[in-house]
Amino acid sequence: MSMFYRSTRDDNVKVTASQAILKGLASDGGLFVPENIPTFDKSLEELSKMSYGEVAYEVMKLMLDDFTEEELKDCIAKAYDSKFDTTEIAPLVKAEGAYFLELFHGSTIAFKDMALSILPHLLITSAKKNHVQNEIVILTATSGDTGKAALAGFADVKGTRIIVFYPKNGVSPIQEKQMVTQKGDNTYVIGIHGNFDDAQTGVKKIFGDKELEKVMNSAGFQFSSANSINIGRLVPQIVYYVYAYTRLLANGEIQAGEKINAVVPTGNFGNILAAFYAKNMGLPINKLICASNENKVLYDFFQTGEYDRNRDFVLTTSPSMDILISSNLERLIYRVAGNSADKNAELMKSLRETGKYEITPEMKAQLSDFYGNYATEAENAETIKRLYEDTGYVIDTHTSVAATVYNKYKADTKDETKTVIASTASPYKFTRSVMNSIDPKYDAMSDFELVDELEKISNVKVPQAIEDIRTAPVLHDTQCEVNEMCDSVKKILGL
Ligand SMILES: *Cc1c(COP(=O)(O)O)cnc(C)c1O
Atom of ligand 1 at shortest distance to CA of 112? Predict the structure, then answer.
């Protein structure tokens, strides 16, 4: 074993991968980061002959090296099975010269399934390895997609309970329906009267509550996280970038060693950070293109070096990216600060206290792998419509942010490097916004009429996840104020 994880806020913390997965967040409020990033021990050609599960093993064994081969392979086999509606798991679709990496073929039709199908297995395995007796309480804030994917992953998993907080008025009707119809005796779903940042901040606060931790422990509980702050989320996300590259290689679309760009529609900065880690592991990536919606705090950050969340929170048609505090950026900040927990902790303190921080020119110079831009609501709708009319391919509102930003990138830089666009959700998850973009006449129809209409125009079968909620009864209707989140958790746990 040679891989350890450190906290971004305290140099004295050093844990194994399984311990980092169990804890989710470090006790000092920092995130766990790999001490150093291992490089592939197989060639890209070798990887290009492997299945998704086999590639997953090759990547994850390097990052989670205190798991045995048997443990990891068992987790992988349980995760990437018939829950996915294609054996490719993450197919590539070429349209308008770019490769859309469809990450939405799992059970809840958003890319969160890629990691949340495996996280429960990694977590249970980690608990066993570390002789944990407590029941594990997964506490999750969601901007819409993580919630359902985590609920689906953890429902009825022995030794766990899952509590999901979502912004009551900040998710799509289908996202909400998916969550509130969730089955499983160990699942709890609560709509908060606030936005995603409120939910995420509230959850982090509960994690950091030392008193509560003691009370929990004596009652036989401990918290963990299913958000992308958990390294057990991030590591499985590295896999599909490697998989996409090696499929392009296998299909003769690129030569071995040829660089590609990756465009990622970004909210909490988890998905794009996984692409950055893939690059560090040796995947030939040229630019990491960070696409934002009108909540363009990351675009401004890449422009100026100042991160400033003091601005209006915009509710957009890509709600899973309506985020002003991108948690995972902290992992990048720590790194460009020369892996300095002190420097990072100082910037995060500034973010907490003033809502902003500024990095030094030396730190900013290390961000040259990244390009940031954003898409307005109007541009986004236009991209969905144009792509559909030109090619017949229908993309969702988040993927459209990426496609729009990719076009801006090409216009800006004239870079013609082959490019993979992370397609993060099925259009069926955001049917109303997608259909309205194609033609405003659709707005008169009900949500499920729109689903049927989308099937007709796209020639893509309605996914099972949507069929499942057509008639499913609502099982969760709890709501609370932001300042009542902790009490809600205590009530659920009977504390
Ligand atoms: C969560 C999500 C994103 C943002 O991903 P991050 O890892 O938070 O940056 C983008 N699109 C969809 C559909 C999502 O569910």
Answer: 15
